[in-house]
Amino acid sequence: MGYRFRDLTAACQDDWRAYIEHDFVRALGAGTLEADAFRHYLQQDYLFLIHFARAYALAAYKSRDLDELRQAFDGLKTILDVELDLHRGFCRDWGISESDLAALPESRATLAYTRYVLDAGSRGDLLDLRIALAPCLVGYGEIAGWLAAQPFTLRGDANPYEPWIAMYEGDDFQAAMRAEIAWLDARLAEVTPARFEQLARLFRDATRLEIDFWQMGLDRAD
Ligand SMILES: Cc1ncc(CN)c(N)n1
């Protein structure tokens, strides 16, 4: 029997849950996250998304057929047209100007995560790269679903973070997440146990870097 995407999350269950259910996520859902922590996260996430858009361009370069090329193009478009567009709107709403964004120093957590993924993708093949990208795409989709199911999550205008939750809960992002899981399921079905171990390590590392990214927001770390 072949592997599936869920075998990757099962292989690092504790890290995966620590990422999905992080204190930053809980506070965001409850609407109690300190505004400065969210602002710090938003600014660093702007830099993060620019590097992740580059990673999707790398995925286009590594593609072997038109389907993979289109998927990489769709990933790049989702980041540029959905996430970054809304993100710049959030920044405006939270008092962060375009010139603030242009002058931002990159935090260590942003540097570590984005360069790790670009390096893993440069050294490896398309599957390595898309596994390293998966905690980002699949994780945020799962986080939105998890938050929607929690009794402490405050929905509607009473929660200042409602637009953020709604973005990742929205059809565009959820469809992109499902398509990625389907592609990963098909590729993972063909790999050997030794290759799966390599990929599981990559997935776990990227998941741990996501945890550091949340913590960077909570700590306002540089
Ligand atoms: C750090 C991080 N990880 C994931 C996502 C969702 N693309 C994001 N915007 N930022």
User: Briefly, what CATH class?
Assistant: Mainly Alpha
Number of helices: 11
The fraction of residues in strands falls at under 5%
Distance between the termini: 45 Å
Cα-atom Rg, whole angstroms? 17 Å
Bound molecule kinds, no repeats: 5-(aminomethyl)-2-methylpyrimidin-4-amine
The residue ranges in which pLDDT falls below 50 over 5 or more consecutive positions are: none
Describe what you observe in this structure.
- This is Aminopyrimidine aminohydrolase.
- Keywords: Hydrolase, Thiamine biosynthesis.
- By secondary structure, the chain is mostly helical.
- Helix content is 79%, strand content 0%.
- It has eleven helices and no strands.
- The model has no long low-confidence stretch (mean pLDDT 95).
- The structure holds 5-(aminomethyl)-2-methylpyrimidin-4-amine.
- 5-(aminomethyl)-2-methylpyrimidin-4-amine binds at residues 45, 48-49, 83, 136-137, 140, 210, 213.
Task: Compile the SSE list and pairings.
Elements: H1 5-11, H2 13-20, H3 23-30, H4 35-62, H5 66-93, H6 98-102, H7 108-123, H8 126-148, H9 162-169, H10 171-188, H11 193-219
Bound molecules: 5-(aminomethyl)-2-methylpyrimidin-4-amine.
